[in-house]
Amino acid sequence: MIDIDLNFYFNGIEIASILRNYNQQCFIIFVTGDPSKALSSINSGTLPTDYIIKEDFHSETVKEKIKNTISQIIQKQIQPALVKEIVYLNIGSNSEKVNISSINYISSIPNNRYSAALQTQNSHLIINTSLGKLKKTISHL
């Protein structure tokens, strides 16, 4: 858990970037009193697990959010061990194995309706299929 505003040489987003460089699988949770800071962390590419906004500094609300986030992290650790959701996607002339839980987002490619961009935790892939077909493939799992 990292406060975004540390009043230190580094801010929390910079520290999270350093952590992410050392460990792509670590869980980063940002804490901030300023909801507008969440956008800065998204733009930084640190891929945090969660954001906790210290709303009015009510300690019970913050404690509850922390408990919920930790429960979600535990579930994320247990679930892949129980179910391996793998899909094979056409990338160029090759077929690539992609774990569904590693997908961060999927987007269309401007002026190219027969390809889609897929961002995973470790890579950015261009898929040789339309966004609609890709959505159907993944939703059937």
3D architecture notes:
This protein is an alpha/beta fold and 141 residues long. The protein folds into 2 domains: 2-82, Response regulator (Rossmann fold, 3-Layer(aba) Sandwich), CATH 3.40.50; 86-139. The protein has helices at residues 12-22, 37-44, 59-82, 131-139, and strands spanning 2-3, 29-32, 50-53, 86-91, 94-99, 103-109, 112-120, 124-127. It starts with a strand and ends with a helix.
Topology of this protein?
Elements: E1 2-3, H1 12-22, E2 29-32, H2 37-44, E3 50-53, H3 59-82, E4 86-91, E5 94-99, E6 103-109, E7 112-120, E8 124-127, H4 131-139
Parallel strand pairs: 1-2, 2-3
Antiparallel strand pairs: 4-5, 6-7, 7-8
The N- to C-terminal Cα distance equals 32 Å
Counted by DSSP, the helix tally is 4
Strand residue content? 25-35%
Helix and strand string, N-terminal first?
EHEHEHEEEEEH
Q: What's this entry about, in short?
A:
This protein has 141 residues and is an alpha/beta fold.
Which key phrases capture this entry?
141 residues, 2 domains, 4 helices, alpha/beta, Rossmann fold, 37% helix, 3-stranded parallel sheet, 3-stranded antiparallel sheet, 8 strands
